[in-house]
Design goal:
mainly alpha; 14 helices; about 60% helix; globular; disordered N terminus
C-alpha cells in the first residue's frame, strides 16, 4: 500500500498565502474604519442620491447599507461590523475559547458569504441606484441580507457559486423590494420594512427557482461531504442567553456572532455620541430602537430556548430587524411602543418564521421563511398596536 504525503513546500506556501491575505485584509479593514470616521456620518444617512459620478457618496452609501438591516444606517456601524466579522472568523479558525457562534449559519463560510453579499450589494446599487432621488429612500441594501449569502450557504463555497449568488441577488431582490415599497407600503401606510422584506422573499423564490437549472451550479448541499446531525447547542448555561441575544443582532447579515454584533454596536454608539442625527434616518430614535431590539432579543431567546436546544437553530433574530424597530419608528419611541413591539415580536415572529421555513423545498434556503415572517408579522402587529391607547406619541 502506498501512502501519499503532501509536500511540505506546498503546505508552507499555502500558509504563507493565507497569512499574507489575512494581513492585507486586516490592514484594509482598519483603513476603512479610519476613513469612515474621518469622512463623518451624514445626518439621516442620505449620503448618495443616485449620481454615479459621486464616487465618495457611493462608497459611503455602500458602507452605510451594511448596518441598514438594523435600522442604524450609519457608515461607522457598517465598517465596524466587517471588522467584527473578520475577528469572529479568525477566532473560529484559531479555535479561541471565546470565539462565539460560528458565522454563516454555523457553516464557517463567512468569507464566501460576506464577499458574495458585498458584491451583490455593489452590483444591485449600480443597477438600481437610478431610482434614488434627494430625500427619497429605496431599499437598495436588500441583496446584502438575502439571496447572495443564502445561496452560498446552501450551495457551498467557490467562485462560480459566489458570483452566481451575487448576480442573481442583485437582479431580483432590489426591484421586487422597490416595487413593494412604492406600490404597496406607501399607499397603504405600512412600515417600509414590509416592502423591503417582501422583496427579499419574492426575489429569493425567483432566484432559487432559476439556479436549479444552471448547469454550472452543484446540487444544493452537496458541498457538505459528511452529513452529520448538528449537535444541540449548550443552552443550559445562563451565559448562553445574553450571548445568543447579542449574536442575533447580526444574524440578518448571516454573521450571527458576538464579536460582529459587539463591533457593530460600538460603531453605532460612537456615531451617536458624535452626531445623534446620523442614525436611524435622522429620526433621533436610536436609543429607543436599540432598547426595543435588546428587549426583543433577550425575550425571544428566553421564550424559545428549548426550540434552540431541540433544533440547533431557531429564528429568534427575526423581530430584532423587523417588528421591534418598526414599531418604534411608527409610534415615536414611546415606552409602550418599545415594550409592546419588542414583546409581541419575540412571541409571534420566530414561530411564524420556523413554520414557513419548514414547508420550503430542500432547494430553498430557510431564510425565505424568516423574511416572509418579517413581512407578515410587521404588517399585522404594528397596525394592531396602533389601536392601543398610549402607544403612539
Amino acid at each position: 500500500m502506498t501512502t501519499t504525503v503532501g509536500r511540505p513546500g506546498s503546505t508552507l506556501r499555502r500558509y504563507r498565502v493565507e497569512y499574507v491575505a489575512g494581513g492585507v485584509g486586516g490592514i484594509l479593514l482598519v483603513v476603512l474604519v479610519a476613513w469612515v470616521f474621518a469622512a463623518g456620518n451624514e445626518p439621516g444617512g442620505q449620503v448618495w442620491d443616485g449620481r454615479y459620478a459621486d464616487a465618495r457618496g457611493l462608497a459611503l452609501w455602500l458602507i452605510t447599507s451594511i448596518s441598514e438591516p438594523q435600522y442604524y444606517a450609519v457608515a461607522s456601524a457598517g465598517a465596524c461590523l466587517l471588522v467584527g466579522g473578520a475577528i469572529g472568523h479568525l477566532a473560529d479558525r484559531k479555535s479561541w475559547k471565546w470565539r462565539g457562534f460560528v458565522q454563516a449559519c454555523g457553516t464557517g463560510l463567512w468569507p464566501w458569504a460576506a464577499g458574495s453579499a458585498l458584491l451583490s450589494l455593489l452590483l444591485g446599487t449600480i443597477a438600481w441606484g437610478w431610482t434614488l432621488e434627494p430625500g427619497v429612500w429605496q431599499p437598495l441594501f436588500v441583496p446584502l441580507v438575502s439571496v447572495a449569502p443564502a445561496m452560498v450557504v446552501l450551495y457551498g463555497p467557490g467562485r462560480i457559486v459566489g458570483l452566481t449568488a451575487a448576480v442573481t441577488g442583485a437582479l431580483f431582490a432590489p426591484p421586487a423590494s422597490i416595487a413593494a415599497v412604492d406600490l404597496v407600503c406607501k399607499p397603504l401606510g405600512l412600515p417600509l420594512v414590509v416592502g423591503a422584506t417582501s422583496g427579499m422573499w419574492i426575489g429569493a423564490l425567483v432566484a432559487f427557482s432559476l439556479v436549479r437549472f444552471l448547469p454550472w451550479m452543484p446540487p444544493p448541499g452537496a458541498w457538505r461531504t459528511a452529513k452529520a446531525a448538528d449537535p444541540a447547542p449548550r443552552t443550559a448555561s445562563w451565559l448562553w442567553v445574553p450571548r445568543r441575544a447579542l449574536a442575533d443582532f447580526t444574524e440578518a447579515q448571516f454573521f450571527g456572532n458576538e464579536w460582529a454584533s459587539a463591533a457593530m454596536l460600538l460603531g453605532a454608539v460612537v456615531a451617536y455620541a458624535i452626531s445623534p442625527s446620523a442614525l436611524v434616518y435622522g429620526s433621533g430614535l436610536f436609543l429607543a430602537v436599540l432598547a426595543a431590539q435588546a428587549v426583543t432579543a433577550l425575550t425571544g431567546v428566553l421564550i424559545w430556548r428549548r426550540r434552540w436546544h431541540a433544533h440547533g437553530f431557531y429564528p429568534t433574530f427575526v423581530p430584532v430587524v423587523s417588528v421591534a424597530p418598526a414599531t418604534v419608528l411608527a409610534f415615536g419611541g414611546t415606552v409602550p411602543a418599545v415594550l409592546l413591539g419588542a414583546l409581541a415580536g419575540a412571541l409571534v415572529a420566530p414561530p411564524v418564521a420556523a413554520a414557513i421555513s419548514r414547508r420550503l423545498p430542500a432547494s430553498f434556503h430557510p431564510f425565505i421563511g424568516n423574511v416572509a415572517s418579517m413581512s407578515v408579522c410587521t404588517a399585522v402587529i404594528v397596525p394592531v398596536l396602533g389601536l392601543i391607547p398610549g402607544v403612539a406619541s
